[in-house]
Amino acid sequence: MKAVVLRSFGEAGNLKMEDVPVPTPGRGEVLLRVHACGVCYHDVINRRGNLPRTSVPAILGHEAAGEVVAVGPDTPGWKTGDRAATLQRLSCGTCALCRSGRNSLCKTDNRFFGEELPGGYSQFMVAPVAGLGRVPASLPWEEAATVCCTTGTAVHTLRTRGKVRAGETVLITGASGGVGMSAVQLAKLDGARVIAVTSGEAKVQPLRDAGADEVILSRGLDFASEVRKRTKGQGVDLAVEIVGSVTFDQTLKSLTPGGRLVVVGNLESGIVQVNPGLVIVKELEIIGAYATNQAELDEALRLTATGGVRQFVTDKVPLAEAARAHFRLENREVAGRLVLVPPQA
Ligand SMILES: [Zn+2]
Ligand SMILES: [Zn+2]
Predict the structure, then answer these.
(1) Alpha helices in the chain (DSSP H)
(2) Does CATH number 1.10.260.40 belong to domain 163-288?
(3) 2-148+292-341 and 163-288: identical CATH topology
(4) Nearest listed ligand to the Cα of residue 91
(5) Which ligand is closest to the CA of 104, given by its number?
(6) What is the pLDDT of residues 63-100, one digit of tens each?
(7) Which residue, 41, 77, 181, 306, has most beta carbons within 10 Å?
(8) d(Cα 266, Cα 103) in Å, to the nearest integer?
(9) How far, in Å, from the CA of 134 to the mean position of ligand 2?
(10) Ligand 2 mean position to 130 CA, how many Å?
(11) Which domain of life is it from (predicted)?
C-alpha cells in the first residue's frame, strides 16, 4: 500500500510516499481503508520532532476516516463496511477514570494515532476500536475526518466540561479556528448568546455567519472592557479559552461573578499570572478540557450529519502531496481545514 512515511524529523519535504506492507488487525482492532485524513497543526509539531512519544519511521495523522475492510479477533460490534473516524487518543475503558467517563485522562492506554500508533497518512491503517467513532452514512469522508478535532473538542469543552445552559452568555476566544467555529455553532445550538473574539478582520463575517451574536475584533490585549459593554456590565457566564496565555487575563476579567472559564488551547505554550483575589471574590471556576471521548465523537458526527454544526473543509489534496500540504499549513496559506485523500485503487 501507499503511505507517507516520515523517516527523519524536520522539514515538510521529509514526508515522502512509500510502498509499505498492509498491516494486520489484532485483538480489538480493525483495518480501515482510509478515505480522508485531516492535516492538523499538531502534525506539523509532530513532524518537527517536538512530540516526545513519536519515533521515526512514523506515519502521521490522527484525523482519519475510513471504511472497515477487516476485523481482528475478539472485536465485537464491528464488521466490514462499517464507517469510522478516529479519536485523537485511546483509553483503556476499564480503569477508574474511564469508568467515570473521564477517558481523556486515562493513563493505562493513552496512545495517540500518528504518534505511538501509525496514523492516517496511508491507504490503510489498523485502529483499536476503542479509538473509533461511528460515521453516519450521509456524512462525506472529508468532513468526517476533521470532526473529532473540531466539533468533538467543542462538545467536550462546552457541554461536558463547561456545562453550557440555554440563556447563558458564552465568550469564545480564537473563535475563527477549527475548534472555535464549531464552538460558536454548538453554543448557539444549545441556546446561548455567543460573543466571539478574533484577531483577524477577515474572520468577522464568517463568525457572524456561523451564528455569533457579537464579534469583537481584538489583538488579545483589551477585549474585557468591550465584553463588559456588550453585556451591560455583567460579564459572561462561560468563557472558552482557545488561545491560551495571550488572552487568559482578559478572558478571566470578562467573567461574571460565579463564571466558568474552560481552557482548551494554549497556542503559544506560554505561562500566565493569575490574581487569586479575583478568583476568590468572584468565585470563578477555571476548568481544563482535553481531547474527546467516544460518545462525544459520535455526538459530534451526528451533529455534523444532521446539519447542526458545519465543518469548514477547504481543500482535498492527494496523499502524495502531504509535504506541500504541511508547507501550506505552516505558511498560513490554508483558511479552513485541509484533508489528504489516499489513492483508492
Ligand atoms: Zn487534529
Ligand atoms: Zn482507562
Answers:
(1) 41-47, 96-99, 141-147, 153-154, 178-189, 204-209, 223-230, 248-253, 276-281, 294-305, 322-330
(2) no
(3) yes
(4) 2
(5) 2
(6) 999 999 999 999 999 999 999 999 999 999 999 999 99
(7) 181
(8) 21
(9) 20
(10) 11
(11) Bacteria
* Least confident interval from 109-113, 200-204, 217-221: 217-221
Q: Is the pLDDT of residue 287 over 90?
A: yes
Fold of 2-148+292-341: Quinone Oxidoreductase; Chain A, domain 1 (3.90.180)
Determine the average pLDDT of the residues in 238-249: 94
Q: What is residue 285's predicted lDDT score, i.e. its pLDDT? A: 98
Residues 203-226: pLDDT tens digits?
899 999 999 999 999 976 789 999
Q: Taking ligand 2, which is a single-atom ion, which protein residues have CB atoms under 5 Å away? A: 91-92, 95, 98, 106, 108
CB contact at 8 A, 258 and 238: no
